[in-house]
Amino acid sequence: MTLGLVVVSVVLGLAVGSFLNVVIHRVPRGESVVRPASRCPDCGNPVRARHNVPVLGWLVLRGRCADCGKPISARYPLVELGTGLLFGAVALRFGDPDQLASLPAYLYFAAVGIALTMIDFDLKRLPNAIVLPSYPVLVVLLTASAAARHDWAALLRAGIAGAALFAFYLLLVLVYPAGMGWGDVKLAGLVGGVLGFLSWAAFAIGAFGGFLLGAVAGVVVIALRKGDRKTALPFGPFMVIAAVLAWFVADPIADAYLRLTGLA
């Protein structure tokens, strides 16, 4: 792994983050992510090319439209910066020569995960337009990784894990429809696949982690008096966050557990 790969990944993430802002705003509305070009939501004037530079454009404009002067939400540069930093972290995680072939699949999931997280927080929806096409994309990327690494067992494990987590969420939504959405069920197959491709430990920790994070968030909401036990929270973000965290912490947690139980 080289520092250059991380730098390139961060720069790529900044550019992808700029595109994700378009996806987050337009996809739930059924609008094209290609046309028209980015415009100010208040005055409708196109954003100039020099102001479309991720993060820097917002800073140069001091968070205001160049034409009408209306404030531009700080969320735009934060999504760009967050995507860049996450891409850099993923490059650190998968940048070693023996894992480099897996990097495109996990960068893709990271980007899709950010878009789905923001949309779910905003609208409590996980659009099919993002989730469903991600299945063939990840199948192709993970298959290419397995072929490059001659690790077909990982691909088989990914398929089993994706199907298992999908089935588990499907059972949950059938048994208790109020507690889970169909979007979560569809997302579960993607989450299970990318976790299972790594290891069964990553799958177990990432799958369980979503429920743990959701429970913690529920307690915080109640403690802050922002809701009660019946308050509906979007669950997709917790699934995505737990999956990404598992990429980094699953192996250390599994090793610590084995040492603690004397199985190591």
UniProtKB/TrEMBL annotation:
It is found in: Cell inner membrane; Cell membrane. Its main location: membrane. Its EC number is 2.1.1.-, 3.4.23.43. It is a multi-pass membrane protein. Keywords: Cell inner membrane, Cell membrane, Hydrolase, Membrane, Methyltransferase, Multifunctional enzyme, Protease, Transferase, Transmembrane, Transmembrane helix. Residues 11-94 form the Prepilin peptidase A24 N-terminal domain. The chain crosses the membrane at residues 6-24, 103-123, 129-148, 155-177, 197-224, 231-250. It holds the Pfam family Peptidase_A24. GO terms for biological process: methylation; signal peptide processing. Residues 108-218 form the Prepilin type IV endopeptidase peptidase domain. GO terms for cellular component: plasma membrane. One of its GO terms (molecular function) is methyltransferase activity. Belongs to the peptidase A24 family. This is Prepilin leader peptidase/N-methyltransferase. It comes from Labedaea rhizosphaerae.
